[in-house]
Design goal:
Elements (H helix, E strand, L loop, with lengths): L2 H8 L1 H21 L6 H17 L6 H29 L5 H5 L8 H7 L11 H10 L10 H29 L3 H4 L3 H8 L1 H20 L4 H15 L14 E7 L10 E2 L2 E2 L2 H8 L2 E3 L2 E2 L6 H11 L9 H4 L8 H7 L3 E6 L8 H8 L3 E3 L9 E2 L2 E2 L1 H14 L4 E6 L25 H25 L6 E7 L9 H7 L7 H6 L5 E4 L7 E3 L3 E2 L3 H8 L20 E2 L5 E2 L3 E4 L4 E4 L5 E2 L3 H22 L2 H9 L2
Parallel strand pairs: 1-10, 1-11, 4-13, 5-14, 6-7, 6-10
Antiparallel strand pairs: 2-3, 4-12, 8-9, 11-12, 15-16, 16-17, 17-18, 18-19
Helix pairs in contact: 2-3, 2-4, 3-8, 4-7, 10-11, 12-23, 13-19, 18-19
The structure holds (2R)-2,3-dihydroxypropyl phosphate and manganese (II) ion.
Length: 621
């Protein structure tokens, strides 16, 4: 045999490893892909991820190398089989936060047995080859391989794998900017980068987060956070205190509902006639902003139910899934309420199956609870969702807190044919035009739902809150939006002012209706509801909108406004809202800026060091 032949034979274990594990990962990719799939697309990232792992094998002598490869293959096989079974139930991939919260899977544990298929074991078949090779290594003479002969091949292979992978990761982060840090759509990562790369990324994100969590917080800082929270909850609450006590609470978070279509017409037709009608009968907050960051919908849910800020990057729902929270559902449940969350999309999206119980929801009616009999865009249509959810709500023991999250009006609003026939004229076939159609559709479904509640007498005994979760129109499409609003472009300040979402609270018999102009945001919802339902809630960072005279909205990027001045952090500039003119910083503004940054930092500290748990322990001592 020639020299090359010996070399190949010598490294047969590594070659086997790369080929066999590569094939397994490609097969797994095919199994989690429900739509279009190409082996070609997945080939490079899969190969790169396996090469990276295989490169470490060169650091061992032959016997240990085979042991190492066997262990790696064993772990990968367990993960593939585990992921596959998890996918069959949740349409998602396992992640470290999910594994750490595994005990919460409770209800699904029983069905895991039914999901397992005997053919899954094929993924473990190649292990026998490595067992065989490992056994065979008994006959190998123990020779010490010099360090440089280990390091050179290791570094070469590692560099090749890392280079291919870098290109793959960069491409994906260009296509989906928030995806790699937030991991909000794990299946998408696994589909595009392969299962092994997905788990590398998951491990990296979890570790970097764990490290930052471990840096201890000083007693002084902890005290500072606590005293801020205490002083924040000591504000007077006279107006509307307890008016909702004993009544049901229905909160509807509407996908991508911004304030700009409210009370507007296009070609003579109202875009949101139903919301407009209910706004007239409700307490309507017309200066209410979304405060979400990269966690999108999940940030809106978090802000509204916890009155804390979302994380600057990533999503609380993945990064802090292990934390303790004092959320609105928990407070309602403590007051004898039945609590339930409703959303017609897969349960694991945004880690909801883990987070909703953490917030204190006793029931979560996710995708599996509905008959997916009509699909628009991402999934179950709002029409079908509202119809089916109504039936479930009616079975809940009163009083209840029902939290509903809609889905149809989700970006990119391209399932236009199914939205109905709103004539958007010039805006036909534009993102804004399609959005108006989508939100017109959702408004119609919302209207039918509310009318049904009214007819059945439910509104007489319920407080109903509706708000939008986050922006609908990216700034790239500014021109189309300007056209709709009868202008040509927007200044930075005007663009910020456009980031309002409608928020309304409907009380029985249309009580307390009217427009409330105070500047507020999603962080204020929980304190506002806590006052209405007389909850003894603590640790909230927002304000009660019915009992505050001074408006304030702090955005995750450090921008803030009080309704008179708007500070935009991107350009470190203050604007006078009325005149639209820039103003120079003075002591008051400087202090306000510092206070905003402090608040964001307090919220981060609460999350990073699980301070709510500490505060709760201290309180119960
Ligand atoms: C899916 C939905 C979408 O469940 O909540 O989240 P988003 O992409 O809007 O953040
Ligand atoms: Mn959303």
């Amino acid at each position: 045999m020639n020299k090359l032949g010996y070399k190949i034979l010598n490294y047969l274990d590594i070659i086997f490893f790369i080929i066999l594990v590569g094939i397994k990962l490609l097969c797994y990719g095919k199994q989690i892909e429900t739509g279009y799939f190409s082996y070609k697309g997945l080939f490079s990232p899969v190969l790169a991820s396996v090469i990276i792992l295989a490169s470490f094998a060169f650091l061992f002598n032959k016997k240990n190398r085979r042991k190492f490869l066997f262990i790696c293959d064993l772990i990968i096989s367990i993960f593939i089989i585990g992921d596959l079974n998890y996918f069959r139930y949740f349409k998602d991939v396992l992640s470290i936060p999910v594994l750490l919260n595994g005990f919460q899977l409770g209800a699904v544990k029983s069905s895991v047995g039914n999901l397992f298929k005997i053919t899954d074991l094929l993924y473990a078949l190649d292990l026998f080859i490595f067992i065989f090779l490992y056994k065979g290594s008994k006959y190998i003479k123990k020779t010490k391989i010099p360090l440089n002969q280990k390091l050179v091949p290791f570094l070469c292979l590692f560099a090749i794998g890392a280079a291919i992978n870098t290109v793959q990761f960069l491409n994906l982060s260009k296509e989906q900017p928030r995806l790699l840090s937030t991991m909000f759509n794990k299946v998408y990562i696994a589909k595009n980068l392969g299962n092994l790369n997905y788990h590398y990324l998951d491990t990296f994100n979890s570790l970097s987060n764990a490290i930052s969590k471990r840096t201890p917080v000083s007693a002084k800082t902890q005290e500072e956070v606590k005293s801020f929270l205490q002083s924040n909850s000591e504000k007077p609450t006279e107006n509307l205190k307890g008016v909702g006590q004993g009544k049901n609470l229905i909160v509807i978070q509407v996908e991508a509902l911004q304030a700009f279509p409210i009370n507007k017409k296009i070609n003579g037709v109202e875009i949101t006639p139903n919301l407009n009608k209910w706004i007239k009968k409700s307490a309507y907050f017309n200066n209410y902003f979304y405060q979400t960051a990269s966690g999108g919908t999940s940030d809106a849910e978090f802000l509204s139910n916890n009155s804390l800020y979302p994380t600057a990057s990533g999503s609380v729902t993945y990064l802090y899934a292990g934390n303790e929270f004092n959320a609105l559902p928990k407070a309602m449940a403590n007051n004898g309420y039945t609590t339930a969350a409703f959303h017609g999309f897969r349960e694991s999206f945004w880690n909801r199956n883990i987070m909703y119980p953490k917030y204190g929801f006793e029931n979560f009616y996710g995708e599996k609870s509905y008959d997916v009999n009509e699909e628009i865009g991402l999934g179950l249509s709002d029409k079908s969702f509202f119809n089916q959810a109504t039936e479930k709500i009616k079975t809940l023991q009163e009083p209840y807190y029902s939290f509903m999250v809609t889905l149809t009006s989700h970006f990119p609003y391209d399932d236009v044919k199914k939205y109905g026939d709103l004539n958007v004229g010039d805006l036909e076939d534009t993102l804004v035009g399609n959005y108006l159609k989508a939100i017109h559709y959702t408004d119609e479904q919302l209207g039918m739902f509310l009318d049904k509640l009214d007819k059945e007498g439910i509104t007489r005994n319920s407080v109903i809150t509706i708000y939008g979760d986050h922006y609908a129109i990216p700034r790239d499409n500014e021109k189309e939006l300007a056209k709709f609003l009868g202008t040509t472009s927007f200044t930075d300040l005007q663009w910020m002012e456009l980031q309002k979402v409608p928020m309304m609270i409907h009380f029985p018999e249309d009580k307390h209706k009217g427009t409330y102009g105070i500047y507020g945001g999603q962080i204020d919802l929980y304190p506002t509801l806590a006052n209405i339902f007389n909850l003894s809630s603590t640790n909230m960072m927002g304000k009660d909108l019915f009992n505050s005279t001074e408006g304030k909205v702090i955005f995750r990027n450090g921008s803030f406004t009080d309704g008179k001045t708007f500070y935009l952090s991107a350009g470190d500039t203050y604007y006078d809202i009325k005149t639209g003119q820039k103003i120079t910083e003075n002591d008051n503004l400087k202090n306000a800026k510092e206070a905003s940054i402090n608040q964001l930092e307090y919220s981060d500290l609460i999350l990073k060091h699980n301070l709510i748990k500490k505060f709760n322990l201290e309180e119960n001592k």
